[in-house]
Amino acid sequence: MNLYALQQEVARQSIALNNLHSKPSLGVGADYIYVRKRSDAEPASNGRDIVQLRGSIKIPLNKDQYDAKEREEQLRIALLEDKKINSSKQFLAVIEQAYTNYETARLNVELYQEQIKITKGAIQILESDYSASGKRFDELLTLHQALINYEEQILKAIVQSHLAKAKIERYINN
């Protein structure tokens, strides 16, 4: 975010500089030239140093280029503002998605824990029935397999919650 703000400040400074260039300017200066005395000839003012004064005036005749540069920088500022807003929205979307994943995983853990309780109760009933009559062994095996699957799903949900939490922390801390 700071990168966009700094780039916007550069564009504003460019506009200010452009405004200075679009105004008339006046320049005054002096040149000094050291001249050694010649021994092979005797010209007039031999060995006299030269001081030359100079002046300049700059009047911008075509202001269109300065206006175009200012419009370009204004558009750059607006573009950077849009990029800043877009980056913020993307950042929030990633955080919200990670939080949603975390909440989903937490709810899945609760769901599978409840399913495990129900399945264990059903297993106890079927074990009692199997002890008494010797029937419905296949249903008992199916419930044990479901119990194992629920425990596996709990582990997957815990991993997903930790991954989501790590993602949230990574984005918030950076």
Topology:
Layout: H1 2-21, E1 25-33, E2 50-58, H2 64-133, H3 137-173
Antiparallel strand pairs: 1-2
Explain what this protein looks like in three dimensions.
This protein is mainly alpha-helical. It has one domain (2-36, 43-173): Outer membrane efflux proteins (OEP). The chain contains three helices and two strands, in the order H-E-E-H-H. The protein has helices spanning 2-21, 64-133, 137-173; strands spanning 25-33, 50-58. Strands 1-2 form a two-stranded antiparallel sheet. Helix 1 runs antiparallel to helix 2 (64-133) and helix 2 (64-133) packs antiparallel against helix 3 (137-173).
Give the tally of β-strands: 2
Shape field: rod-shaped
Would you list the SSEs in sequence order as H and E? Answer: HEEHH
Number of helices: 3
Class by alpha and beta content: mainly alpha
Low-confidence stretches: none
Approximate strand percentage: 5-15%
Query: Numbering strands along the chain, what is their spatial order in the largest sheet?
Result: 1-2
Total domains:
1
The CATH architecture can be given as: Up-down Bundle
What fold name goes in the CATH topology slot? Outer membrane efflux proteins (OEP)
Helix content: over 70%
CATH superfamily: Outer membrane efflux proteins (OEP)
Kindly report the average pLDDT value: 90
End-to-end span in angstroms? 12 Å
**How would a textbook summarize the main sheet?**
2 strands, antiparallel
Compose a concise summary of this entry:
The protein has helices spanning 2-21, 64-133, 137-173; strands at 25-33, 50-58. It is mainly alpha-helical. The chain has a single domain, classed as Outer membrane efflux proteins (OEP), CATH 1.20.1600.10.
